[in-house]
Amino acid sequence: MNVLKKIPLLGWIVVAIILGILLGPVMPVGLGSVFLTYNSIFSGFLSFIVPLIILGLVMPAIAELGKGAGKWLGVTALIAYGSTVLAGLLAYFVSCWLFTASLTGGGVEEIGEGEGSGFEPFVSLVTSAGDGATEIVLEPVIGVMSALILAFVIGIGLTAFRSTVLFRGAVEFRTIIEMVIRRIIVPALPLFIFGIFLDLSASGSAITVVTKFLLVAVVAFALTLVVLLIQYTIAGTMSGRNPLKALWGMRDAYFTALGTSSSAATIPVTLASAKKNGVSDSVAGFVVPLCATIHLSGSMVKITCFSIAVLMLTGGDISFGAYLPFILMLGVMMIAAPGVPGGAIAAAAGLLVQMLGFGEVEVGLMFAAYIALDSFGTATNVTGDGAIAMIMNKLTHGKLGAQAQDPEDEHVEVLAGENDEHNLAN
Question: Considering the entire predicted model, what is its pTM?
Answer without folding.
Answer: 0.75
